[in-house]
Amino acid sequence: MKKYLIAGAVALAFGGAHAADVAPRAENAYLSQADAAARSARVSNVDYTLEFALTGKESFSGTTTLSFDLKDVSQPLTIDLDKATIGSMTVNGKAVTPQYNKWFITLAPADLVAGRNTVTIAYTRLHSTNGEGLHRMVDPVDGRVYTYSHFEPAAAHQMFPVFDQPDLKGTYQVTVTTPADWVVSSTMRETGVQDVDGGKKWTFPRSKKLSPYNFAMHAGPYKVWEDTSGKYPMRLFARQSVASQVSPQEWFKYTKQGLAFFDQYFGVPYQFEKYDQLLVPDFLYGAMENAAAITFGEGSFLHKEEMTAAQKQSLAGVILHEMAHQWFGDLVTMKWWNGLWLNESFASFMGTLATAESTEFTNAWQGFYSGGKQAAYVQDQRVTTHAIETPVPSTANAFDNIDAITYSKGASTLKQLRHLLGEEVFRKGVHNYLVKYQYQNATLDNFIGSLGEAAGRDLSGWTKEWLYEAGVNTIAADFSCAGGKVSSFTLRQSATTKELPTLREQRVQIGLFNLSAKGLSLSKNVAITYKGEATAVPELQGAACPDLVYPNYQDWGFAQVQLDKKSFATAQSSLSKVDDPLLRSMLWQSLWDGVRAAKLPLNDFLKTALANAPAEKDYTLLGDIVDKVRASKGYLEAQGPSAYSAKVGVQLEQMAFAATKAATDNNFQRRWFSTYLGLASSPTALKQLADILSGKLVVPRLNVSQDVRWDIIRRLNRFAYPGSEALLAAEQERDKSDSGQQAAISAAVVRPDAKVKAEWAATIADLQTKLPFSKVRTAMGSMYPTEQKALNEQTAAQRLATLGAVDKAAGPVYMRAYGASMIPATCTPASVERLDAAIAGLPDLSAGTRRALLVTRQEDERCVAIKKAMTVR
């Protein structure tokens, strides 16, 4: 794994007029923004000729010829290359001895010329196993070897010598030799495949200009499906052993629909000629927008039975998110990594819009509300909240602030801006931006400037409020009634905290609702633009006095909604009377916000859930409700055993199992059974799961697929159900696939067994382990489920004591997983105090790890407060 090591500045005599006056680049694994800016000021017109020799073995070799224009030779120039062995290097035709520190090569000014330069480097390197660079995986089913590239945020130099920064776009001409049964996908479609020495030689034409992180080259004996029915040829790749778990017709359908939508919406045709998508193993993220060769993590998109509606919607949404990047990110690219949020926000916004308007999932915005947007609200209320636009000092910090604020708050602000400016004005501004900056790098100011120009409006104030200031505002309706009519109505806005005082301008709809025999019906709604602490709404005077007011009706705005007392009571008592699924989602969320703020007792929320969830007929909303029910059970487990917890736990199990049996729709049945699996902990429920696994208990219409079998086995092992260890061993023999291995690790690690925990803790701590990082990450996530407080406590002090050392030794990829899973929190005041002490005693943690520690502490305190607020023990 990449390690964060700083060797200190080294004084080097490079020669050249001003070399002594220039601080050398810091000798570490990362590139600072200052060094990147200095390099891009000198370098332009970059072209790469890349030759790779892939054998399937642990190492690969390559030769890179890098041509570029150089403005001056007054100082050294660096080329990024990570942990390679250099065989030879020539600079402008002259053989030179590489000055190489395993992170970058330094070219002396004496070897360079002002003008065109050519550098050729032959090298070998180990394949990566952590999901970055040129990753290699051996399929445990058939021994076949697969490779794929992944370069975001700055990992292209883990595959070839490169100026690894977004604003040095280049062209790429690729030649690669592979074993005979391999196929290769890159940014361009191959122009030639020749038989050579027991293998094949693949030749690709020179690409259009791309930032290094958008280039890709993937190779292996992939199964390939093709579809030429649309405007652009489409291909889909997957490992041979999992090909039966792929539904290519669904992939091609959403891809074709999306390409047609974006061509029309952007008014700029897709630029990269063909559209390849690859399902790849051990992937770090959901997907990656490599130009014309997009990668998707297998874990989310392989299915051993027919996809549910939710899985299809997720597939469509991710395909269209990555597709939006082909224009916004690949065609026009940020200058530096501080612009990563705009890439992701825009793709999240456009991906949802395209899903709603070009696929069957017309309710995609409802899913966005209950999924991404709620995560953004949570993130924005944490002590680690940050502005959407934040500085990124170096590539080490590129992902420090990549979170729900980056993706979903950013997307919400763009959605809000579209309402503020008007849909067509917004679209025109986007079109103008893409045309003006195509094949170039652009900044936030360039994007906002294009929108402002289209609108004829100065957006600098809006930009400052929304993009450079942190925190989420709360809005509330303040109204009075007289004679059954609204006599006054004011929308009030408040700031998150005194430390985050910004109030914002925003356009929302205010909805008034009244109860009748037919249910809760909309009586009036108005769209208003509000700003400041108070905005009068005279349009609502004279309306029927409402039973409920929702001041962000249809979810235009990004704001926490604080319901007035009457509206809150109506929401709690009348959820089943609300016809509109989006409004119903929002009212459920208001109740859940009350729980998380320790204002609504958790047991009151669970009482409402038990009364209303089984009757829910909206599939998307049901998913949101059962997620909240599972989170509620998690709080109960974290709080420790109690008579109430045991009683309500059984009630929740019975609710979910009864709904599973009663469901006639396959989607609903699978959602309810998944909920049951996530709730089962009583002896009765665990025995039912064991009986379903063995076939002794048959639930009509329920398909017990291989994935479901593993889910059951993991649950049984989590609670040490008698015989569960033997069931795990037998299932490992039955399913030797990569996903089976992952599931087996999860089921083994989650067992409440101190010896097992110690063995896996040692594996996790071994930064040189041969186990692929994807499996280490799985182990981390299974170590300490909420109810295993005693086991968690056994090593809690040790894990906190060594956190600083682990943070220094491991890299950001490792620490993102470690920080999310291995920092101890056990929902007690003592646990909160212990985390306080760690925060005070570890001032030198990396930014990402410190964030994880602060968030863990805040959520631990929240759990304690929720426990204290409960009215039933």
TrEMBL record:
Catalytic activity of the protein: Release of an N-terminal amino acid, Xaa-|-Yaa- from a peptide, amide or arylamide. Xaa is preferably Ala, but may be most amino acids including Pro (slow action). When a terminal hydrophobic residue is followed by a prolyl residue, the two may be released as an intact Xaa-Pro dipeptide
Residue stretches making up the Aminopeptidase N-like N-terminal domain: 48-213
Protein name, entry field: Aminopeptidase N
Family: Belongs to the peptidase M1 family.
Assigned EC number: 3.4.11.2
Domain of life of the organism encoding this protein: Bacteria
Pfam families: ERAP1_C, Peptidase_M1, Peptidase_M1_N
GO cellular component, one term: cytoplasm
Organism: Duganella aquatilis
Cofactor: Zn(2+)
Domain annotation Peptidase M1 membrane alanine aminopeptidase: ranges: 254-466
Domain ERAP1-like C-terminal: residue ranges: 548-857
GO BP terms, alphabetized: peptide catabolic process; proteolysis
Signal sequence, renumbered to the chain: 1-19
Keywords annotated in UniProt: Aminopeptidase, Hydrolase, Metal-binding, Metalloprotease, Protease, Signal, Zinc
